[in-house]
């Protein structure tokens, strides 16, 4: 399936192609405009739209926040747009891209479709924005968030070799739990801590997080581990398994270097462990807001 987004300007594509070829990122020039467009969009939301609309519609709540809380508020606004948009886009591509659906093992590893590349580019644009904010506001977000942003931008950029293009949409479905996390945070800042709305949102958050990140994540990780194992034993000199030349036209490097395996596989293992840890922290945080002691304390205020 072709990329439904408008094509890049020839000048921009030609400008970045030599560097991308040198870095073995052969499909990146096709999506450089999408990365830049998403980066600019989220920067505008973070710097201008979120402060403007939040200050207008929630003047009392927003203007009373500290500098740190305002930065976090604006970041949650960007995160809300990103998580909803990329989840819907990934689901749409998975449902509509018949070429992607028909991929065999070789194509899942080194193949490419324009629509899946678009999802990958939109995610890369967000993580590029995320990285710049983490660097600028390191005192607020901390070294942990900076490390997370850096690892994400490296992982998704390397996908433009292309490698694991098929799995870009798959792991973007992790973001389906993020809107509920953002809403939970907004409830606290809007004085709605301990309300029934926050309770129902908390139940939805834990349910979707468990389903998307632990169940779906474990299943998808197993699939990519299996594909990597088969790829390690794949004979590149043998007759190609792929029957679709258009999907493989950018897959010039039918290889899987050990450093790439370590980055991807190590990242997935760490992320799955973090998902278990975060789930426990979420459950504890939600329960804390609804203990009898917390309810009594809020009534006294």
UniProtKB/TrEMBL annotation:
<feature type="domain" description="TLC">
    <location>
        <begin position="68"/>
        <end position="291"/>
    </location>
</feature>
<feature type="transmembrane region" description="Helical">
    <location>
        <begin position="164"/>
        <end position="187"/>
    </location>
</feature>
<dbReference type="GO" id="GO:0005783">
    <property type="term" value="C:endoplasmic reticulum"/>
</dbReference>
<feature type="transmembrane region" description="Helical">
    <location>
        <begin position="109"/>
        <end position="128"/>
    </location>
</feature>
<feature type="transmembrane region" description="Helical">
    <location>
        <begin position="199"/>
        <end position="219"/>
    </location>
</feature>
<feature type="transmembrane region" description="Helical">
    <location>
        <begin position="256"/>
        <end position="279"/>
    </location>
</feature>
<keyword id="KW-1133">Transmembrane helix</keyword>
<dbReference type="InterPro" id="IPR050846">
    <property type="entry name" value="TLCD"/>
</dbReference>
<protein>
    <submittedName>
        <fullName>TLC domain-containing protein</fullName>
    </submittedName>
</protein>
<feature type="transmembrane region" description="Helical">
    <location>
        <begin position="78"/>
        <end position="97"/>
    </location>
</feature>
<dbReference type="Pfam" id="PF03798">
    <property type="entry name" value="TRAM_LAG1_CLN8"/>
</dbReference>
<dbReference type="GO" id="GO:0016020">
    <property type="term" value="C:membrane"/>
</dbReference>
<feature type="transmembrane region" description="Helical">
    <location>
        <begin position="140"/>
        <end position="158"/>
    </location>
</feature>
<feature type="transmembrane region" description="Helical">
    <location>
        <begin position="35"/>
        <end position="58"/>
    </location>
</feature>
<keyword id="KW-0812">Transmembrane</keyword>
<dbReference type="GO" id="GO:0055088">
    <property type="term" value="P:lipid homeostasis"/>
</dbReference>
<dbReference type="InterPro" id="IPR006634">
    <property type="entry name" value="TLC-dom"/>
</dbReference>
<keyword id="KW-0472">Membrane</keyword>
């Amino acid at each position: 399936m072709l990329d439904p987004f408008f094509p890049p300007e020839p000048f921009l594509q030609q400008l970045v192609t030599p560097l991308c070829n040198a870095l073995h990122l052969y499909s990146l020039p096709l999506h450089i405009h999408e990365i830049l467009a998403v980066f600019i969009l989220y920067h505008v939301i973070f710097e201008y739209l979120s402060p403007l609309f939040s200050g207008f519609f929630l003047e009392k709540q927003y203007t009373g926040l500290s500098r740190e809380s305002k930065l976090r508020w604006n970041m949650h606004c960007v995160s809300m747009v990103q998580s909803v948009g990329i989840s819907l886009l990934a689901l749409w591509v998975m449902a509509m891209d018949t070429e992607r659906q028909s991929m065999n093992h070789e194509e899942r590893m080194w193949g490419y479709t324009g629509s899946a590349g678009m999802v990958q580019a939109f995610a890369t644009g967000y993580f590029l924005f995320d990285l710049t904010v983490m660097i600028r506001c390191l005192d607020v977000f901390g070294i942990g968030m900076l490390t997370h942003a850096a690892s994400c931008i490296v992982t998704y950029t390397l996908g433009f070799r292309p490698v694991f293009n098929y799995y870009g949409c798959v792991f973007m479905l992790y973001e389906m739990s993020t809107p509920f996390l953002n809403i939970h945070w907004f409830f606290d800042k809007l004085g709605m801590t301990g309300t029934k709305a926050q309770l129902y949102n908390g139940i939805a958050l834990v349910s979707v997080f468990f389903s998307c990140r632990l169940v779906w994540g474990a299943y998808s990780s197993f699939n990519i581990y299996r594909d990597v194992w088969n790829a390690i034993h794949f004979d590149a000199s043998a007759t190609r398994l792929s029957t679709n030349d258009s999907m493989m036209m950018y897959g010039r490097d039918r290889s899987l270097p050990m450093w790439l395996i370590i980055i991807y596989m190590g990242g997935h293992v760490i992320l799955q462990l973090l998902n278990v840890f975060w789930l426990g922290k979420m459950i504890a945080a939600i329960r804390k807001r609804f203990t009898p002691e917390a309810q009594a304390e809020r009534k006294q205020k």
